[in-house]
Amino acid sequence: MCGISGSTAVSTSVLERMRARLGHRGPDADGLWQETDGGFGLAHTRLAIIDPSPAGAQPMVSECGRYVLAYNGAIYNFRDLRTELEAAGERFRSLSDTEVLLASLRREGSRVLSRLIGMFAFAFWDRERGELLLARDRLGLKPLVYGRPPGGALAFASEIHALEAHPGIDLGIDPEALSEYLACLYVPAPRTIRRGIRKLPPGHFLKWRGGEMRIERYWAPHFEGGRALGADEALEELAPVLRRAVADRLVADVPVGCFLSGGVDSSVVAALLADEKRRRGDGPLKTFTMTFEARAYDERTRARRIAEHLGTEHTELPASTRMADTLDDMVRAFGEPFGNPTAFLIGDLSQKAREHVSVAIAGDGGDEVFAGYPRYRGGLIAGTYRRLPGWLRRVAAERVMPILKESSAGHHWPRRIREFVNGAELPDDQMYASWVEYFSPDERQRLLGLENPPLRPISTLYRTAPSSHPLDVMQQTDLLSFLPGNLLAYGDAMSMRHGLELRLPLLDHRLVETVGRLAPEVRIAGGMKGLLRRAARKLLPDRLVTRTKRGFNPPLGLWLKSELAPLIRDRITPATMAAAGLDWPAVARILEEHERGRRDVALKVWALLVLERWQATT
Questions:
Q1: Interior/surface letters 214-245, b for 16+ CB within 10 angstroms, e for the rest
Q2: pTM (predicted TM-score)
């Protein structure tokens, strides 16, 4: 796991500045390679996980001197690829996956992407052809951004902050990206908040040669399942893929642990990891749980019971009580506004777990792949709701919803009921967008002073899904938007902020493809996330599987009423909001709603605060 940066035309001093801004991603070593000062250059910062010896240092140059690679990630099947390459006559100087990737790219170019199992973002330079290949893994676990300086050059980096050090890139604010941030609380690919910087989307590669650039997709999730298997048959097909995905994430030459929240996702992962370590004769699995003072958010008891059952070496890590003190550092980690406060928790957890391990395996992605979000249930019953008499739906919307008091203390069902009732009257694509977007089109129009309603990025994705089944479409949409733009973005940014590699076996592309081929009814047989729960019952006692899990979220509503209240008062002002391009009366309306406490608008207030802090710290 590392940080990469480079450019087709860059001075050595600029390349060094870009590399310095990625030091947190690679605290173990760094390197720089350049044709000539002012020519093509690559920089790398290294977190040494596989073959920590100097033989695995980067940028790595092929033995013939023609090819150069800077790479961030982990290729879990690199040993299998190495065996194939050695049979074809290749000889290796290291035990690293980097050298295997370099040899594979030298032989196959972009065609090898279909054979890689893992997470990655890399830059591969062919000196003879003057051709650059950039690529990002299928689901977007590893980030990669790029920009176009004048003269046809191309610059790139693992993070926006590093690319900002490159001269000639337009760093003005992209107004459409600002609107999308307010909608999603993140800026969806390919945009960033900077006009001149773009994200390479997941499952894509970019080729540059002689000033010309093209981008191609090589993989996409495909939820259009038609395999109507029985539940037991489906689990029999899925189990070996799941077990292999988990076992592969143990490939490392440094200590590995597991985040254990007590939910079905992390419990399945921990159970399979513990079993695999016993099979190999390794020591006990190290597990980590974050604990909270607020009881509504704390899951230590359940996690402790699972750890005891699995025989893990378990550590409870208390959440820091002064998250506000690290707000500016969190904002800087993303290089653009990012409004999901769970990033705080991942950062805090990563910093504390890093004292024990260099790699952490987590259950993230289970809700998207195995259909666990409550909104999926809403999408499945929306058609039935619309068939209710109109007068009954009007009573719900006009009389019941206004008196339903929403909570900011960890109980989300009143807000979800309101969102369902309001959204179910819309066309399907707009309905789903209304459930996953935060500031509505009307609110964004008022906040940004727009003449016309803004675009709905989620609605567009929903309409272009290959299936017509609501569950297929919702999962497909999330895998292309919410997952890479939100969950994976904060997972990478906050773990790498502390030099910790985060691995997610439930997002193994082989597993995603296997689940995506199953009929929707099979995926949710026995309830939402039914297939994964069925797998869990093969590994754990029922008493540890059946309870409903809380989401891994901070007590944001409580924070905004307590320790963050002075920041809201001092930072969200007419002057700061005007500097951010927002209309004050529209902001004041949201703050008033927050103070009245009838509606849970905590995330909207938080998004405004993050936007202000990003402006102030840029």
A1: eeeeebebbbbbeeebeeeebbeebeebbbbb
A2: 0.94
